[in-house]
Write a structure and sequence with these properties.
mainly alpha
C-alpha cells in the first residue's frame, strides 16, 4: 500500500505548481466553474481523510504521542485551525468511528454507516455530515435507537410534504 502521507504530499506539490504558475489567470469562466467543482471534490476528500484519520486513531494515544492534551489540540497544531474548527472534525470523527468487537477484533459498523460511506465517496463534507447527524446526536439518550434509525426517513417525508413533493 502507498504511504497515505506521501500521496497527500504529491497532491500538495501539484497544487503548489498550479498556484505558482499563474495558470489560473488565463482560465475562461467555464474553466473556472469546472475548477471550482473539482476543488470541491478535493476539499471533501481532504475533510474525509482528516475525519477518518481521527476516527480510526486512538483518542488518547494519538494526541499523547505528539505531546498534546487531546485530539482537538493535536488538530489545532497539525491542521493550523482554531479550536472550533478542530472540534468539528473531532465531532465528525465520533459520528463515523467504527469500534472494534472485543471478542473477534473485527471492525463494527459506524454509528451512521451510510453517511460514513458517502463522506468517503466525497458526496458530503464535514458540514453536511454534522448537519445530518447533529440534531439526533444532540438528543442523546432522549431518543431511542429505533427512533434514531427512523429519523432520516421521517425527515425526508416531512421535507417532501413541506415542499409539495
Amino acid at each position: 500500500m502507498t504511504n497515505p502521507a506521501a500521496v497527500l504530499d504529491r497532491v500538495v506539490t501539484a497544487l503548489d505548481q498550479l498556484l505558482g504558475a499563474d495558470a489560473l489567470m488565463s482560465l475562461t469562466d467555464a474553466e473556472r466553474r469546472v475548477l471550482l467543482s473539482t476543488a470541491g471534490e478535493v476539499m471533501r476528500r481532504v475533510e474525509a481523510t482528516i475525519i477518518e484519520t481521527v476516527a480510526t486513531g486512538d483518542p488518547v494515544d494519538l494526541p499523547n504521542g505528539a505531546g498534546c492534551r487531546n485530539v482537538n489540540e493535536l488538530l489545532q497544531r497539525t491542521l493550523r485551525v482554531d479550536s472550533r474548527g478542530a472540534a468539528r472534525f473531532v465531532k465528525a470523527g465520533k459520528v463515523v468511528r467504527r469500534d472494534v468487537d472485543f471478542t473477534s477484533g473485527e471492525s463494527l459498523p459506524a454509528r451512521w454507516p451510510v453517511l460514513r460511506r458517502v463522506m468517503l465517496d466525497g458526496a458530503v463534507g464535514t458540514d453536511g455530515l454534522l448537519a445530518a447527524t447533529g440534531p439526533i446526536e444532540s438528543a442523546g439518550d432522549r431518543i431511542g435507537a429505533t427512533d434514531a434509525r427512523r429519523a432520516p426517513r421521517v425527515r425526508r417525508q416531512l421535507v417532501g410534504r413541506c415542499s409539495g413533493r
